[in-house]
């Protein structure tokens, strides 16, 4: 997905982090979060941070305005001709089921920051980038 792109990936999640969360749901959420960042970043950076409390992915991709973010959270919504709304909707539904908190910050042409907090609140001190 990123082999033909000029993307620098920084993983700041320690290898020994243990997430006491349902594995299958966690895999679906992390897969969708990373896929969206890699899909909409053609060049620049994708930075992954997290610990047992949260995971955040910041990118320098195309970003979205608030109206687009609202549309993307609807099921089966398409944006830029591709079905990304379903992935974000799946993340949102899993968060609702588990009590996890989903927070998305984005600026068009700047990038996005998506945080999933496993303790029910997003980490407001996470630096974007």
Explain what you see.
The chain is α+β, with helices and mostly antiparallel strands and 129 residues long. The chain is 29% helix and 27% strand. It contains 3 helices and 5 strands, in the order βαββααββ. It has a 5-stranded mixed sheet, with helices on one face. Strand 2 and strand 3 form a beta hairpin. Helix 1 packs antiparallel against helix 3. The longest helix has 17 residues. The protein is globular, with a radius of gyration of 14 Å.
Question: Summary?
Answer:
The chain is α+β, with helices and mostly antiparallel strands and 129 residues long.
What is the makeup of the main sheet?
5 strands, mixed
Number of helices: 3
Please tell me the overall pLDDT: 83
- How many strand units? 5
Coarse structural class: alpha+beta
Q: Which range does the strand content fall in?
A: 25-35%
- Radius of gyration of CA atoms, rounded to a whole number: 14 Å
Which sequence of strands runs across the widest sheet? Answer: 1-2-3-5-4
- Ends apart, CA distance between termini: 21 Å
Approximate helicity band = 25-40%
H-E string: EHEEHHEE
Instruction: Give start-end ranges of low-pLDDT stretches.
Output: 77-84, 122-129
Inertia-based shape: globular
